[in-house]
Specification:
Elements lengths: L1 H95 L4 H16 L5 H6 L1 H4 L21 H8 L17 H96 L6 H25 L5
Keywords: Coiled coil
């Protein structure tokens, strides 16, 4: 009985130790999950900041693109205005040189077409004036002869060089002010936008990986909780068994003590009867035997009373 009780106590201690280990494992898993959750929150905040920066870069790129388009439109309008001014200034000069109406209409029409499409500069339209007016006022060929050349008179060439509205030479080259800075800013914004997109993609992948890891840790935590619940149930069963064994042991001890008390009382009665005078040798021997039996019963009673309650 004592061996069984010790085995029950030892089993209960082992079960309690296993439950403590499971509780420590669960606490460690909870701490790791909390750290992963915090890291996931930081990654989401970083991804949100990168998305905000990406939107700002896209807006800046849109503004620079609109500014570039507006600048190009202004330059096209400026070229058209310069071409029209050149045509208006060249028409009376050519008329004074004695050119006929048909010859004057041809270059002016070419100049209008060049200015209206917006792709050719004003210089191309003015260059078309030269081959159309090869005849001078006396009907002879120009400096280039019939074999080709500019064919314009010195007066026409000088007039075409100064047909600006303020008397300054007409700038027929394509204006470039502001284009270099706008293009450079656009390229820089595009590069920064691509870098921000790559960083956002990397942050999204890292956040997805962290979410998967957190889900795995949560699944492990749930499994640990289930295992702890199973261990707790096993510990409860062991404790119930130990309690039942203690109760049975207490009942057995109570019965044993009751039997011992009864036997001791009977032996004492017999000893008292045998020691009453007159005492002969047979009664003395029987009393001695009863005293020995009483000693054994007392020793058994002491052992029974010293048994632990469990």
């Amino acid at each position: 009985m004592e061996d069984e009780h010790e085995a029950l106590v030892e089993g209960e201690g082992e079960a309690a130790g296993q439950v403590d280990e499971m509780a420590e494992t669960v606490a460690e898993l909870q701490r790791i999950v909390a750290e992963r959750d915090a890291a996931l929150v930081r990654l989401r905040e970083e991804a949100t900041a990168r998305q905000r920066r990406l939107s700002e870069l896209e807006d800046a790129l849109d503004r620079k693109t609109a500014q570039l388009i507006h600048t190009q439109r202004l330059q096209v309008e400026r070229r058209e205005a310069a071409a029209e001014a050149a045509a208006e200034a060249a028409t009376p000069l050519l008329a004074r040189e004695g050119a006929d109406d048909g010859a004057a209409a041809k270059p002016l029409g070419s100049l209008s077409r060049c200015s209206s499409d917006g792709s050719s500069g004003a210089g191309t339209g003015l260059a078309a004036l030269a081959p159309a007016h090869r005849h001078s006022s006396d009907g002879s060929s120009g400096t280039g002869g019939t074999g080709g050349g500019t064919g314009t008179t010195p007066l026409a060439r000088r007039s075409l060089a100064a047909v600006g509205p303020t008397g300054t030479p007409l700038e027929l080259t394509e204006p470039q002010e502001g284009w270099g800075g706008i293009s450079e800013t656009s390229r820089r914004l595009e590069v920064e936008l691509e870098a921000a997109q790559r960083q956002l993609q990397a942050a999204s992948e890292t956040a997805a990986s962290a979410e998967d890891e957190v889900e795995t840790m949560r699944a492990g935590l749930a499994a640990a909780h289930d295992a702890a619940a199973v261990q707790g149930e096993a510990l409860r069963v062991e404790r119930e068994k130990a309690a039942a064994a203690r109760e049975a042991q207490q009942r057995e001890r109570a019965v044993l003590v009751s039997l011992l008390e009864c036997k001791v009382s009977r032996l004492l009665a017999h000893v008292s009867h045998d020691l009453e005078p007159p005492v002969d040798e047979a009664r003395r021997q029987r009393a001695s035997q009863e005293v020995q039996a009483l000693r054994r019963l007392v020793a058994a009673a002491v052992v029974a009373l010293q048994m632990p309650d469990g």
